[in-house]
């Protein structure tokens, strides 16, 4: 250092000692500076005090010579000690050169800078708070210092500063939060530990309401929660836990809306993510659960984002049981927030009085920018991010379009877990119940996927899917929709209404006019369309019909009434061009009709055809049942039309008797022995009044080969009381009554003609198939 410079009021001896490489000599010089400054304080000579500080700062602390810088640091500390309580007047001049030395490449010098600043802060105490941000910024850098001595010195200074902040009520939180928001995204573990410790301290100070500013740094806290250090994760968990307790205590002052998107982001963790992210997901899901319960409808604008995060978690296994349970609670609570009020138009809902929000949220763009920045820093490239559907906080509107989009996306995703698919379908059902008017606007797009879901492997998924479809088909809100159901190029799900059937109008069958079922008016325009597409799916997916067909139809009979289902399917099958499918479908429906407990009421309705409605239903079923001769006979047995059954069996001689045909007869014999036909077997006791029943059964017996079914039916007929009473000739003592006379609404001759026409079509199709299968070189196989 140039000794010719003027360092007054510092004496040459002081200057020489400050530049010495020995610490002891620099310490002696510091004591002399302290004595000198005390004299200036006594004289109230602030000009000389500032001059001493300026010399020590510019000529020593900021010098190029390392020993001079060390001397300048200890000299500045000595000035602060000498100034005492007056040091607050000179803090900027004292602190700035010391903080500059925090960046020095010499670790010893950085340590001396810590020591000097510690002495300055210790003397000034609360007066340093206006300079807190620069002190915090410097300390956050030293917290990650590689030198252990420097780190130890910074920790001492850090504890001192925390004590000062805790004791004071003048801490400027507003000025500090931007710095906290910036520093919290540091990836250095020591810096993160430093940040977390300060948040914990500030949160514990009663006079500092850090909760108001939680949206500013909550995202950073969740990122620190994923740190590889167990200790840092534990500290962060404690801090987040304290904040959550505070939120539960004072929910009215919490800015739920501003933090909703932050939680949505961190609730979404892919399976490929590291295990520490599981903790982030569990914690954020727990927060989301509390937010929904505490904030209520305030979170509805974010519901689509919440569902995007929650739904996949519902399919987690026991390894993530806690996250799954929290997600389930979120899903249940969010669903309860949707009410019939959400079905009102936005204009209508805005006219109603709703409680205003207690907080003034920050601009959505600012929040989104900060979140997107943090999103990039953690590499969440596939996270779904949502903005509120409405910026008007006084009226909370349900983001129905966003919710439906999320639900539809999960249904289309083949990787979606079973429990998630069930939850999606429960949501759709709930929305159709609570907001039917708005939901029917989405039915066109949802309907194809709902039909496809019937092929799901899970029975429970199919049950929920059928509940949704049944609600669509029966909801009064669907009556107002007259547009086509599906605008889809996929022919498998395209809807067509048969000619003659439009919005509940009667359908012409042959020369007869067949009204829809009496209970059909309770269904809407979607009901018939649903039946058409269901049968089309059965036609294209025969495995679905074989494995799940009966299950699906039985459940629909419970949900939409059996008469509606059978009446509509019979109408549709009457015009089915694929005769083989029509026969198979009739056989399936007939088996369900005769054996399922769900069809008990419908069977009772068909047993006695004494009303116009029951006769109309029988005729409707009969015309379609003609696709399958054995099913037609069983329908006559069920309705006690024994003479007509006998007439039909007489025509079986003109039909092509195949193995499949005989197997159906075999099954009918088995059904006759079942509880369903108990009344029929009891009627065999009254031979005099039921001769055509016995003749029909004998007709079946003659069709059967010598098989077990033959023996079974033969044994049953052998139990008929007196064979002589079976004569069919009119007897004066016991005239035979024709039950058909009591059914004036049924033209049985026309029904027989219809049976002949249908069977002729079947025979023609079989001959055409046989002709196509022949080959010129075909050999006769014996």
Describe the structure in your own words:
The protein has 782 residues and is mainly α. Helices cover 63% and strands 1% of the residues. The chain is built from 36 helices and two strands. A two-stranded antiparallel ribbon has the order 1-2. Strand 1 (507-509) and strand 2 form a beta hairpin. Helix 3 (46-61) runs antiparallel to helix 4 and helix 5 (91-101) packs antiparallel against helix 6 (107-124). The protein is rod-shaped. Mean pLDDT is 84; it is low at 353-393, 481-521 and 774-782.
- Cα(first) to Cα(last) distance is 122 Å
Oligomeric category? single chain
How many helices? The count is: 36
Coarse structural class: mainly alpha
The parts where pLDDT drops under 50 for at least 5 residues are: 353-393, 481-521, 774-782
Radius of gyration: 44 Å
> Into which percentage range does the β-strand content fall?
under 5%
Largest sheet descriptor: 2 strands, antiparallel
In which range does the helix fraction lie?
55-70%
* Number of beta-strand segments: 2
Average pLDDT confidence is 84
Overall shape: it is: rod-shaped
Strand adjacency order, main sheet: 1-2
In short:
By secondary structure, this protein is an all-alpha fold. Helix content is 63%, strand content 1%.
Features:
two-stranded antiparallel ribbon; 782 residues; single chain; disordered C terminus; mainly alpha
């Amino acid at each position: 250092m140039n000794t010719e410079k003027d360092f007054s009021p510092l004496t040459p001896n002081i200057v020489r000692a400050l530049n010495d490489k020995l610490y002891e000599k620099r310490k002696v010089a510091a004591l002399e500076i302290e004595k000198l400054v005390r004299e200036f304080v006594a004289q109230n000579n602030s000009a000389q005090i500032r001059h001493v500080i300026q010399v020590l700062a510019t000529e020593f602390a900021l010098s190029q010579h390392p020993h001079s810088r060390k001397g300048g640091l200890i000299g500045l500390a000595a000035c602060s000690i000498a100034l005492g309580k007056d040091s607050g007047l000179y803090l900027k001049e004292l602190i700035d050169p010391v903080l500059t030395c925090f960046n020095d490449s010499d670790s010893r010098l950085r340590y001396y800078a810590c020591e000097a600043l510690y002495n300055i802060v210790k003397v000034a105490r609360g007066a340093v708070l206006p300079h807190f941000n620069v002190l915090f910024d410097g300390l956050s850098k030293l917290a990650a210092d590689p030198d252990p001595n420097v780190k130890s010195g910074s920790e001492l200074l850090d504890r001192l500063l925390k004590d000062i902040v805790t004791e004071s009520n003048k801490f400027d939180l507003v000025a500090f939060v931007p710095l906290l928001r910036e520093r919290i995204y540091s990836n250095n573990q020591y810096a993160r530990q430093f940040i977390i410790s300060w948040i914990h301290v500030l949160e514990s100070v009663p006079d500092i309401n850090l909760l108001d500013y939680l949206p500013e740094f909550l995202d950073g806290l969740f990122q620190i929660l994923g740190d590889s250090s167990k200790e840092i994760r534990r500290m962060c968990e404690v801090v987040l836990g304290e904040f959550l307790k505070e939120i539960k205590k004072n929910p009215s002052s919490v800015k739920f809306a501003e933090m909703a998107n932050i939680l949505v982001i961190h609730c979404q963790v892919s399976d490929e993510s590291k295990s520490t992210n599981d903790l982030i997901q569990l914690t954020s899901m727990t927060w989301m659960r509390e937010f929904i319960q505490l904030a209520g409808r305030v979170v509805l604008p974010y519901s689509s984002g919440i569902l995007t995060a929650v739904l996949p978690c519902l399919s987690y296994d026991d390894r993530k049981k806690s996250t799954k349970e929290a997600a389930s609670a979120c899903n249940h609570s969010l669903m309860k927030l949707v009410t019939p009020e959400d079905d009102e138009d936005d204009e209508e809902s805005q006219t109603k009085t709703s409680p205003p929000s207690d907080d003034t949220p920050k601009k959505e763009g600012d929040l989104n920018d900060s979140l997107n920045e943090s999103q990039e820093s953690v590499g969440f490239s596939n996270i779904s991010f949502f903005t509120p559907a409405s910026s008007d906080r006084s009226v909370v509107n349900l983001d129905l379009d966003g919710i439906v989009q999320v639900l539809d996306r999960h249904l289309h995703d083949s990787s979606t877990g079973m429990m998630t698919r069930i939850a999606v379908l429960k949501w759709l059902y709930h929305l159709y119940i609570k907001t039917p008017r708005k939901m029917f606007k989405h039915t066109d797009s949802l309907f194809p996927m709902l039909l496809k879901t019937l092929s799901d492997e899970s029975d429970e998924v199919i049950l929920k899917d059928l509940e949704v479809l049944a609600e669509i088909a029966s909801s009064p809100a669907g009556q107002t929709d007259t547009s086509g159901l599906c605008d889809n190029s996929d022919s498998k799900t395209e809807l067509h209404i048969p000619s003659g059937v439009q919005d509940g109008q009667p359908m012409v069958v042959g020369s007869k006019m067949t009204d829809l079922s009496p209970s059909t008016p309770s269904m809407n325009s979607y009901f018939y369309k649903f039946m058409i597409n269901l049968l089309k799916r059965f036609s294209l997916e025969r495995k679905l019909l074989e494995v799940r067909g009966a299950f699906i139809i039985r459940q629909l009979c419970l949900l939409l009434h059996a008469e509606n289902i059978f009446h509509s399917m019979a109408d549709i099958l009457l015009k089915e061009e694929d005769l083989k499918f029509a026969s198979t479908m009739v056989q399936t429906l007939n088996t369900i009709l005769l054996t399922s407990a769900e069809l008990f009421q419908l069977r009772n309705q068909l047993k006695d055809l004494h009303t116009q409605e029951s006769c109309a239903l029988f005729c409707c079923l009969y015309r379609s049942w003609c696709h399958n001769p054995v099913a037609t006979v069983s329908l006559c047995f069920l309705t006690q039309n024994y003479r007509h059954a006998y007439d039909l069996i007489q025509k079986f001689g003109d039909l092509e008797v195949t193995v499949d045909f005989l197997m159906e007869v075999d099954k009918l014999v088995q059904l006759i022995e079942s509880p369903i036909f108990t009344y029929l077997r009891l009627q065999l006791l009254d031979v005099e009044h039921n001769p055509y029943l016995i003749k029909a059964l004998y007709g079946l017996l003659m069709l059967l080969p010598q098989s077990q079914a033959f023996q079974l039916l033969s044994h049953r007929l052998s139990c008929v009381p007196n064979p002589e009473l079976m004569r069919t000739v009119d007897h004066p003592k016991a005239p035979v009554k024709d039950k058909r006379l009591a059914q004036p609404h049924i033209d049985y001759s026309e029904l027989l003609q219809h049976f002949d026409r249908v069977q002729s079509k079947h025979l023609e199709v079989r001959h055409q198939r046989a002709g196509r299968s022949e080959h010129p070189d075909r050999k006769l196989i014996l």
